[in-house]
């Protein structure tokens, strides 16, 4: 199994460029970013080229975080802002060679939000070119009021958009908190999944403790033929270099 370092969380005590080199030194196979927009894309690209690490993805801008926004694409009436965020993410992704853009839904509910999300995702699919698009259900404990909460709802949105370049970001941490049954769900949804992330449940630490026995998940994904690096997206109180025993164990 291969692994991607999510540099939104791992080594978050240092600048993005240093995080890429830290991930390389630690033996990760890829990296992924959250919101790298304050860092010059050419510099990120140079660090990726220097390390040989592919970048698996980044997120659309959240909007006005001072007002608590966490994505714009499911917000009725905010289509112009949502599409500007999609354009910005696709442009940045193309410059650094990122494989995917995660289009963030935001805090919204109801049929109008669903329709808005579907329309904005349709726009993103038309503009994405070679870049893949992802949507990610977030759990209700960390993100109460977020539009997209379950893999089941994610599938309904993907079915409604009906475009081959839109897939599900299956974050085992969020799905375990909302629905569980990870083994069957990964099997059933595999054709729709574009990226998989991991963290311990419920504390979102390194994937070496808690409710999810990750050696089983890794073996299961291996048996299913999954090859894309799994995104290590965890927040652990220890310095990142001290949390990587799970990575060594998975490699053994
Ligand atoms: O929180 C997560 O999980 C993510 O993957 C973020 O990129 C989106 O909030
Ligand atoms: Mg995630």
Automatic annotation (TrEMBL):
Residues in a coiled coil are none
Gene Ontology molecular function terms on file: hydroxypyruvate isomerase activity
Tell me the GO BP annotations in alphabetical order.
glyoxylate metabolic process
Where is each Xylose isomerase-like TIM barrel domain found?
A: 21-248
A Pfam family matched in the record: AP_endonuc_2
Q: Could you tell me which InterPro entries the record lists for this protein?
A: HyI-like (IPR026040), Sugar_Epim/Isomerase (IPR050417), Xyl_isomerase-like_sf (IPR036237), Xyl_isomerase-like_TIM-brl (IPR013022)
**SUPFAM superfamilies from the UniProt entry:** Xylose isomerase-like (SSF51658)
Q: Does the keyword Isomerase apply?
A: yes
Q: Which Gene3D superfamilies match?
A: Divalent-metal-dependent TIM barrel enzymes
Give the residues annotated as active site.
Answer: 136, 233
Key words of the record: Isomerase
The similarity comment for this entry is: Belongs to the hyi family.
Q: What is this protein called?
A: TIM barrel protein
Q: Which organism is it from?
A: Palleronia pontilimi
Identify the taxonomic lineage of the organism of origin. Bacteria, Pseudomonadati, Pseudomonadota, Alphaproteobacteria, Rhodobacterales
């Amino acid at each position: 199994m291969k692994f991607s370092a999510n540099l939104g969380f791992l080594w978050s005590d240092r600048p993005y460029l240093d995080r890429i080199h830290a991930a390389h030194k630690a033996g990760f196979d890829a990296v992924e970013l959250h919101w790298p927009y304050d860092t010059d894309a050419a510099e990120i690209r140079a660090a990726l080229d220097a390390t040989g690490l592919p970048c698996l993805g980044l997120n659309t801008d959240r909007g006005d975080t001072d007002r608590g926004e966490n994505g714009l694409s499911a917000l009725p009436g905010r289509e112009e802002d949502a599409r500007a965020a999609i354009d910005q993410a696709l442009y940045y992704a193309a410059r650094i060679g990122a494989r995917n853009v995660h289009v963030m839904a935001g805090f919204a509910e109801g049929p109008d939000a669903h329709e808005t999300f579907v329309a904005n995702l349709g726009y993103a699919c038309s503009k994405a070119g070679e870049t893949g698009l992802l949507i990610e259900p977030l759990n209700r404990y960390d993100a109460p009021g977020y539009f997209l909460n379950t893999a089941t709802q994610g599938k309904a949105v993907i079915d409604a958009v009906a475009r081959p370049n839109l897939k599900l970001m299956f974050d085992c941490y969020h799905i375990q908190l909302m629905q569980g049954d990870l083994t069957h769900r990964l099997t059933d949804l595999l054709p729709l999944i574009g990226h998989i992330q991991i963290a311990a449940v419920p504390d979102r630490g390194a994937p070496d403790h808690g409710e999810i026995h990750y050696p089983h998940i890794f073996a299961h994904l291996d048996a299913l033929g999954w090859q894309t690096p799994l995104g290590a997206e965890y927040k652990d109180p220890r310095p990142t270099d001290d949390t990587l025993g799970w990575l060594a164990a998975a490699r053994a």
